[in-house]
Amino acid sequence: MFFYVFLRSLEFSGDGLFLITCAAATYVAPKSKLTPEVRIFFFNLFMAYVFDMIFVSIVKKIVRRPRPVYNRNHFLTMQVDHWSFPSGHSTRALLVYTTFWLYIPMWRDQSHRSWLPYLQQKLERRVNILNEFVPTAEAILINLIASIVTGWAIATTSSRIILGRHFFCDVIAGALLGVIEAVFAYYFLTIPIGTSEAVHRKITGAFGWVENSTSQIFHGKKLLVHEMAKR
Q1: Cα–Cα distance between 107 and 41 in angstroms, integer?
Q2: Residue 136: CA atoms inside 13 Å, Cβ hemisphere, count?
Q3: Of residues 28, 15, 8, 18, the one with CA closest to residue 207
Q4: Is 83 within 8 Å of 68 (Cβ atoms)?
Q5: Are 167 and 90 in contact (CB under 8 A)?
Q6: What's phi and psi for 168, nearest 5 deg?
Q7: What is the pTM of this model?
Q8: What is the Cβ-side half-sphere exposure of residue 222, based on CA atoms within 13 angstroms?
Q9: CA distance 177 to 88
Q10: C-beta atoms surrounding 5 within 10 Å
Q11: pLDDT tens digits for 155-166?
């Protein structure tokens, strides 16, 4: 039972709408929460997800290969279509994996400039990290994150076969397609940091305007209620 729940959680984590929402929500997070480099990573990941969902949907409608017979009575977490080739979860899993490794220089820089100093500050009273050990600590941190991403990608692609959602060749084709999509997005869909920051300011500014307008509307209603109560 636990294994099945685990597989279903992997299925949900690789859903396209879920990943697009996560990437978009992370990108529009407050400016103080993320550096511009990390923010542009999630913007480009968002664009790659959108491209993936459009492209995979087109390929599926062209090939129109039915899902495995033993999958017919299974309830899918979020079934968008009935076609099996290629596996969309596999394309997205390898898309995340490949994109992460393409940005590995940026992650190393983030580890050196942001993450490790933050951990040192939080743990300064408990753990004293020697300067000589800093490169090793950075490598351990990056390798830990890389192991999590790699493990998730392998588990997600494998779960598509174990759950009976796809044939083996669907998963292999999806994985290869995910790698190609990641490389394509990295070289052709990437935007400059300045553009990313300008888009972020526009979006957060719009959110701020909506929040202020909503607050004023409800505040005005409260004042009207108080005036009517006085009468």
Answers
A1: 10
A2: 5
A3: 28
A4: no
A5: no
A6: -60, -45
A7: 0.77
A8: 6
A9: 9
A10: 9
A11: 888 888 888 788
User: How far, in Å, CA of 185 to CA of 151, rounded?
Assistant: 23
Phi, psi of 14 (to 5 degrees): -100, 5
Q: Let me know how long the chain is.
A: 231
Are 155 and 175 in contact by the 8 Å Cβ rule? The answer is no
CB atoms within 10 A of CB 218: 10
- Name the phi and psi angles at 209, rounded to 5: -65, -45
Residue type present at position 19 = L
Environment class of 112 (CB within 10 Å of its CB; exposed 0-12, middle 13-18, buried 19+): middle
Identify residue 27 by its one-letter amino acid code: Y
C-alpha 115/C-alpha 224 separation (Å) is 49
Among candidates 198, 192, 149, 205, which has minimal Cα distance to 44? Answer: 192
Single-letter amino acid, residue 199 = V
Q: State the alpha helices, DSSP H only, in the chain.
A: 2-13, 16-27, 36-63, 88-102, 104-110, 116-123, 134-162, 168-188, 193-230
Q: What is the pLDDT of residues 187-203, one digit of tens each?
A: 888 888 888 888 888 88
